[in-house]
Design a protein that fits this description.
Length: about 350
């Protein structure tokens, strides 16, 4: 077992900084270098987290630093090259979801990791949310019978495509950005594989603002054990909502059901100026990160230290890319798409 895991982070925007914060909480993890194409962000984040080794080019970081593992936290469509470069450098890789926005890219990454004998984990961190862990225990205990139907909604306010992802929202689509989470949840809870999808999408509001990506997707997804999932995601909810995320899920089984509202029991704060519902699934408590993202990253580092295979694996990531690509294709063609 390794006493210390030396880490690099490629891409230190909002989520990349979350990775940094979580890694620095672990006593057996050491972030020794960061890389980002934006020089100002790179310097500010390096100073904030006290990381002196800062690189505009991740290839230079990989060639100069002695790293055990790397987090790739670049935009959705820019995962392939840094992941392949990290694998070629002999690093284990944690890649943010989705693994890619195209099947060919995802296949290349999974194949490269297998050939190099390095670990590739895709950060479907929702699996570490407390309510999903409890749901998984109930399913595996056999309390609910066999799966029949699922409804899962994961949506964002307009803030996400117009501000948070303003420079690259047109380079991704909701099946990759949001549905990859919900489909992974249901696939993981149920077991089984997707065999057929039928979806619809519309492009109006965002396109009128110069962002060329659909406003919403709705998808019916059939599984090989006969169950059906109904997945919906949009990212044009009004910014007046108290949280940028809307997340609800209903799982129906032959002998029971599971209902999840991710914000039902959370704190509500009202001031003279505004009403807000702060998320509590991933927060800082007295300066320390706590929650599902923290636990997902802890799992990755533990797997590197103990030489265990992480989950969700690269193969899980590839499967989800195939499903999400089929959803996009179905909406564009206006007909169902079969998966092998």
């Amino acid at each position: 077992m390794k006493d210390q895991v030396r880490l690099g982070v490629i891409g230190v925007g909002l989520q990349g900084q979350t990775h940094l914060k979580c890694y620095q909480t672990l006593p057996y993890a050491q972030v020794v270098a960061i890389a980002d194409v934006h020089e100002q962000t790179l310097r500010e984040v390096g100073e904030k987290f006290a990381i002196p080794a800062q690189y505009r080019d991740y290839r230079e970081m990989l060639s100069r630093e002695e790293l055990d593992a790397v987090s790739v936290v670049t935009p959705d469509h820019l995962h392939r090259e840094p992941v392949l470069a990290a694998i070629a450098a002999g690093c284990h890789v944690l890649c943010e979801k989705p693994l890619a926005t195209g099947v060919e890219d995802a296949e290349a990454m999974v194949t490269a990791a297998k050939r190099a004998g390095v670990k590739l984990m895709v950060n479907f961190s929702n699996r570490w949310q407390s309510y999903l862990a409890l749901a998984k225990e109930a399913v595996e205990a056999g309390e609910l019978g066999y799966p029949v139907y699922a409804y899962a909604r994961l949506s964002n306010t307009l803030y996400v495509p117009t501000q948070m992802l303003k420079t690259w929202a047109s380079q991704t689509k909701l099946p990759f950005w949001l549905m990859s989470h919900t489909i992974d949840r249901v696939r993981w809870l149920w077991g089984g594989e997707v065999t057929r999808v039928y979806s619809v999408a519309r492009s109006r509001l965002l396109r009128s603002r110069g962002i060329d990506t659909p406003d919403f997707y709705a998808a019916l997804v059939e599984f090989d054990h006969g169950a059906v999932g109904n997945f919906e995601s949009c990212w044009i909810l009004p910014e007046t909502r108290p949280n940028i995320v809307d997340s609800k899920m209903e799982l129906v089984f032959s002998e029971g059901s599971i209902s999840v509202d991710a914000y039902q029991t959370l704190v509500q704060i009202a001031t003279k100026e505004a009403y807000r519902v702060p998320g509590t699934l991933q927060v800082d408590i007295y300066g320390q990160p706590v929650g599902f993202v923290m636990e997902a990253l802890r799992h990755f580092v533990d797997c590197v230290r103990e030489d265990r295979e992480p989950w969700p694996s690269g193969e899980d990531g590839l499967t989800l890319v195939r499903v999400c690509t089929a959803i996009v294709e179905s909406a564009e063609r206006g007909e169902p798409v079969e998966l092998g």
